[in-house]
Design a protein that fits this description.
The chain has eleven helices and 13 strands. With 444 residues, it is of the alpha+beta class. Helix 2 packs across helix 3. The chain is elongated, with a radius of gyration of 30 Å. Pfam families: Peptidase_C14 (PF00656). This is Peptidase C14 caspase domain-containing protein.
Length: 444
């Protein structure tokens, strides 16, 4: 036994002793029995797997009955018949393991004309033990993106995990590392409440049909857009130089957001993990009053005080952003116009220079009513702010060299990272600016 086999019963017993949720132990059989019988009586009938007992909370499945071997007739050159059909069925979501094994047995019986009969023994008392939970699904996501879902202890959790608690438990280093993954979507809560909040949970999170580039030769217009859609009392201007990655929000988009205005919220990369589709928190420094700060101008929202400028350095980031050297993210949001309680001036001290040619500096910031909520959760149906897209600007040099960024130098800008994330030493940037170094947008 010690020379030629594994004590499967001992292995199962050790696993069960660890008190897991369940133990599922699946055993295939040999197509050919290579070990000759060497019993005291030369008993050649001792073949295959010996009968096993299932400790509490354990399911053991054999490819064939105890003491039997499988017929060598699988059409799969790599796997036996049992493994062939197990691979076919085991990834089915929302199906109990017992039902999966019944489907495997049915297909095996059909192929072998009942010659091979899988066997299982179980002491699992719970109903609906899933290998792939019903809440797990494989969706299409764009190249460079990942979708991750976590179940707590293998079950749905009915305790809301707040963004603040999770996010504040991370160290600065962890935030930086997570930000490198470019997490566009993160829901923290139980799947049951998630299903209630968003009807199309299993659909595509990124909505490629509405991705677009804003520039001459792509999507472009001058002045306020006149396309007949009701965006409330605030005009929508072309965000030149940016590419939008649209989020799926609702089927009837125009109906849902009739009268909602478009605004922008710049964010630092690490902070984005707690913001993107989880919710916005009111600003700590309430210059214009308590509420969430949004700007009608993406030019204003892209200042490094709000939108971090990040140098693209790693090989993986270069693959994702192609030939770009710097990248910025800004959230594009829809805001219910009646909840914009203050429209006020810029707060960066821009002196003697127009920030955005389409707007006065005196109407650069909105303060949106939070309805006394600590976080305005985008997924709540009555939310007054909804993030509908991620705006990305990739450039071949520092964006502070762009013509539309020249106002930065007449406003507040500094090297202190907790204030302005410039992504380069400010003196070096100023030197490049004086020397006339140019910057261009990178799209594809």
């Amino acid at each position: 036994m010690q020379r030629f086999a594994i004590n499967a019963q001992h292995t199962v017993d050790r696993m069960a002793a660890m008190k897991p949720h369940v133990v599922i132990f699946l055993l295939d059989c040999c197509r050919n029995y290579w070990v000759p019988a060497r019993g005291r009586r030369g008993d050649e009938s001792i073949k295959g797997l010996h009968h096993m007992t299932a400790p509490s909370g354990t399911l053991i499945a054999f490819a064939c009955a105890p003491g039997k071997t499988t017929p060598d007739r699988s059409s799969d050159p790599k796997n036996g018949i049992f493994t062939k059909y197990l691979l076919k069925h085991i990834t089915t979501s929302g199906v109990d393991i017992e039902q999966i094994l019944r489907r495997v047995a049915r297909d095996i019986a059909s192929e072998t004309n009942n010659e091979q009969q899988p066997f299982r023994v179980s002491s699992i008392s719970e109903d609906n033990v899933y290998v792939v939970p019903p809440d797990a699904c494989t969706d299409y996501v764009q190249n460079g993106s990942y979708k991750l879902e976590i179940l707590m202890n293998g079950t749905k959790v009915n305790i809301k995990l707040t963004t603040k608690k999770i996010y504040e438990s991370l160290t600065e280093k962890e935030k930086e590392e997570l930000a490198k993954l470019k997490v566009f979507f993160m829901f923290m809560g139980d799947t049951k409440s998630r299903n209630k909040k968003q009807q199309f949970r299993s659909e595509i999170i990124l909505h490629p049909e509405w991705n677009c580039i804003y520039d001459v030769g792509h999507i472009y217009w001058t002045g306020a857009l006149q396309d007949g859609r009701d965006r409330g009392k605030f005009d929508y201007f072309c965000p030149i130089g940016w590419k939008r990655y649209a989020f799926y929000v609702t089927d009837n988009f125009d109906e849902k957001f009739k009268g909602w205005s478009i605004g922008y919220h710049g964010t630092k990369f690490a902070y984005g993990l707690s913001i993107l589709l989880s919710g916005l928190a009111p600003g700590i420094k309430a210059v214009l009053g308590k509420g969430i700060s949004i700007s009608q101008s993406i030019i204003y929202a892209s200042h490094p005080r709000y939108a971090e400028v990040k140098r693209i350095e790693s090989k993986d980031e270069r693959i994702f952003f192609l030939n770009g050297k710097y990248v910025q993210f800004v959230l594009q949001c829809r805001v219910l116009s009646k909840n914009i309680k203050v429209v006020g001036p810029e707060s960066l001290g821009a002196r003697g220079i127009a920030i955005d040619p389409n707007l006065s500096n005196d109407v650069m910031e909105w303060v949106v009513d939070t309805q006394d909520k600590d976080i305005m959760d985008f997924s709540v149906p009555n939310s007054t702010i909804v993030c509908t897209g991620l705006m990305i600007r990739v450039t071949d040099n520092h964006p502070g060299l762009l013509p539309e960024s020249q106002w930065w130098y007449s406003s507040h800008i500094c090297n202190y990272k907790r204030c302005c994330c410039v992504g380069i030493d400010l003196s070096e940037l100023m030197k490049q600016r004086i020397n006339g170094v140019k910057c261009n947008f990178i799209y594809e």
